[in-house]
Amino acid sequence: MKQNNDACEIFCINEKIVKEVKSSMLSDEEFFKLSENFKIISDSTRIKILYALSKKELCVCDLATILKMKQSAISHQLRILKDTRLVKFRKEGKIVYYSLIDKHVIKLLDMGVEHAKE
């Protein structure tokens, strides 16, 4: 039988490190919210929308043209992104413009792009 080389060969706990890491862990609710955000942005269409919005504020018509998709499909994805507080909107007359809710989303995108290019 093949030996598993990616596990400790003896049982040994570093109490100091374990205590330090445990004290810095998020609550279950915070982990759940984080997990939900990652689920939302795991969709390639939503990532494309977020990436486009990281460049400029855009309306649904603009996004549909850029992504070569139907406006209804874009609107559906924007609703999900809005509900999870990743994008915001403002209305100007009959046009609704979307943008990223804050700089945290841009940082998240930038880190993901950088990691994907490695």
Brief summary:
By secondary structure, the protein is mostly helical. It has helices spanning 15-24, 28-41, 44-55, 60-67, 71-83, 103-117; strands at 58-59, 87-92, 95-100. It has a three-stranded antiparallel beta sheet with strand order 1-3-2.
What does the model show?
With about 120 residues, the protein is mainly alpha-helical. It has one domain: Winged helix-like DNA-binding domain superfamily/Winged helix DNA-binding domain (Arc Repressor Mutant, subunit A). About 60% of the residues lie in helices and about 10% in strands. The protein has six helices and three strands; from the N terminus they run αααβααββα. Strands 1-3-2 form a three-stranded antiparallel beta sheet. Helix 4 crosses helix 5 (about 70-85). The longest helix has 15 residues, at about 105-115. It is elongated. About 10% of the residues are buried. The model has no long low-confidence stretch (mean pLDDT about 90).
List keywords for this structure.
118 residues, mainly alpha, Arc Repressor Mutant, subunit A, 3-stranded antiparallel sheet, 61% helix, elongated
Helical residues, percent: 55-70%
The domain count comes to 1
> Helices and strands: which structural class?
mainly alpha
Q: Give the termini distance in whole angstroms.
A: 36 Å
Instruction: Look at the structure and give the CATH class.
Output: Mainly Alpha
Strands, count: 3
CATH superfamily: Winged helix-like DNA-binding domain superfamily/Winged helix DNA-binding domain
